[in-house]
Amino acid sequence: MKYGLFWGCLIPARELSYEVSVIKVMPAFGVELVKMEDTNCCAPFGIQSLDYTSWLALAARDLCIGEEMGVDIMTLCNDCYESLLMVNTILKAHPEIKNQVNEILAEVGKEYKGNIDVKNMIDVLYDDIGVKKVKDAVEKPFTGLKIATQPGCHLTKPKRIHFGVREFDALDELVMATGAETINYERREMCCGGPLRGVNDELARDVARIKLVNMKNAGAECIVTVCPFCFVEFDLGQLEIRRHFKEEYNLPVLHFAELLRMAMGMKLDDWEIKSHRTPLESILKGRLPEG
Amino acid sequence: MDRCPQGGDVAEVMFAIRNIAAREKNMPDGFAAQAKNLIETGRVVTSTASMVRKREQIGLSKEHSTATEDVQKILKKTGFSKIIASK
């Protein structure tokens, strides 16, 4: 199995533990991740909100790089997934839009052909590798840990291209494969509030708070996310909520790749543990780095 | 489409409305900042100097590509810069 790995902006810039965890975990399942050279920003929803054509063209340029490499693309970030998957879907379905985009791409010597697919890491683990193989790779299960999953909006919507709520189930099944329990909480499908940042920060904070209240009330001990924006909303967000509302939720937040990495017997390094703004120690019994 | 009884794509309508608003110079400051970053650096989010050092320290590549020149050519062709210009 070989994929062009599309890192996006946020993970390499802010969430290095996610990057390191993916590098350590995926090869163990026979997945070859090939570096995509010379990629550009996927033009996430903020850019899409300003100019649709620019969004189409920028995302299409990245798709061209995958096509030139002869590989399907695997994304990690939900925004990158939404951008690349949506644009790929639109251009494959609408030749007139494809032609318009190719006129723009000619400026940079690219041509979109429409011969690759875009997947997210969860798609690859669930569909290509399978939950059983993930479970078989677990050496140090998180038995009894109650996890609230946050797949994120752009992993699952719009439903017309995401086959309904499959990805909700996919992430939960993968989390359960690590030995943990997933808990059902109120308004599980609700957004984390991240897209509101830069538009209405107070509302973004309040939306994250609703999610945290519901997770805590349902008995969650930890949150697992796929999207780096959801991660920040809940990890850093708990500090903001503590400052503003004087409320503590003490819910450590992990990227799914970090959870799987530790379940496979690896440990996070000190700097990775410290990079989480909501402390992880409550869930790291027996998993702390030596020294 | 997930909610509209006629199968209309509500999210797409929202994007269209936002695009029109942007052309009328009506956009959130946060989105304008993202756009400015994109035009100048090829990325919406860029690494800080300390993060670049950390990447090198732990053996990751210094930073990932930005293809700034191609991004700028594309955005010039689409007229994106003019949308952002006076914001």
Give the SSE order of chain B as H and E letters: HHHHH
Assembly state:
heterodimer
Question: How much helical structure, as a percent, in the residues of chain A?
Answer: 40-55%
Low-confidence stretches of chain B: none
Distance between the termini of chain A: 37 Å
Order of helices and strands of chain A: EHHEHHEHHEHHEHHHEHEHEHH
Sequence stretches where pLDDT stays below 50 over 5 or more residues of chain A: none
How many DSSP helices of chain A? 15
Strand content of chain B: under 5%
User: Biggest chain pair contact, residues each?
Assistant: A-B, 42 and 47 residues
Major sheet: arrangement of strands of chain A: 2-1-3-4
Ordered list of secondary-structure elements with their pairings:
The complex is a heterodimer of chains A (291) and B (87).
Chain A: E1 2-6, H1 10-14, H2 16-25, E2 32-35, H3 45-50, H4 52-69, E3 72-75, H5 78-93, H6 95-105, E4 118-120, H7 121-129, H8 131-136, E5 146-150, H9 153-156, H10 159-162, H11 166-177, E6 181-182, H12 201-217, E7 222-225, H13 228-245, E8 253-255, H14 256-263, H15 270-274
Parallel strand pairs in A: 1-2, 1-3, 3-4, 5-6, 5-7, 7-8
Helix pairs in contact in A: 2-14, 4-5, 4-6, 5-6, 7-11, 12-13
Chain B: H1 10-23, H2 29-41, H3 49-57, H4 68-78, H5 80-85
Helix pairs in contact in B: 2-4
Structure, described:
The complex is a heterodimer of chains A (291) and B (87). Chain A is an alpha/beta fold and 291 residues long. Helix content of chain A is 51%, strand content 10%. In chain A, the strands form two sheets. Chain A has a four-stranded parallel sheet with strand order 2-1-3-4. Chain A has a four-stranded parallel sheet with strand order 6-5-7-8, with helices on both faces. In chain A, helix 13 (228-245) links the parallel strand 7 (222-225) and strand 8 (253-255). Chain A is globular and about 55 Å long. In chain B, 61% of the residues lie in helices and 0% in strands. In chain B, helix 2 (29-41) packs across helix 4 (68-78). The radius of gyration of chain B is 18 Å and the shape is elongated. The interface between A and B is large, with 42 and 47 residues.
